[in-house]
Design a protein that fits this description.
globular, mainly beta, Jelly Rolls
Length: about 200
Amino acid sequence: MISLLISVLLAWTPFAQEGKDIPFDIRARQNLLMGKGGTSGSLYYDVVITRQPTQGILIKLPYTKKGGKFSFDLHHRIAMPEDFGLPAEVTTVIEVLSGGTTSLGVYTIADKIHAGDKFDETIIKASSAEIDKFITPMFRKTITMDIRPGPQSISIVGQMLMITRGATTTRVDTPGTRIAAVSNFKFAETSPGVSLTR
């Protein structure tokens, strides 16, 4: 009987540790807003190459006693005119900073783009400028990070973009260049689990 009770409590433990989503502030500059997902309604932001947290996608997380999990979707940010040159291998590298320039991690998304590839949803662009007409996010990789207890501000910044077509590789690492897109931000506070005692 006791073993049955312990089995039930152990089975419920993962559910008890799930956190609930809590609100946070995205303090990115308005000119970094790429647009809104036509299906999901998620906001998409451009990520620029910089080492200055205030120039990146600045996010103010709320105070938590036990920390939490922060996640977002990372995408390539590609201009896809007719002469883009496909297939192409694209590698995008971003970094998440905290406390000034302290790195919380470097994250990479790498994919091969073929003719006819499209992003999984239409983006309603924030800008109607001619230069933004061919810009699109491509592919999706969910990044999940453990966040320490207490208040914290983080910033998502770009490091570099590499595009390879055949034997030619182009590397983009110029400060101020927009190289990635991010969306679907979520933050959940860690909840205490069920402790088993005799």
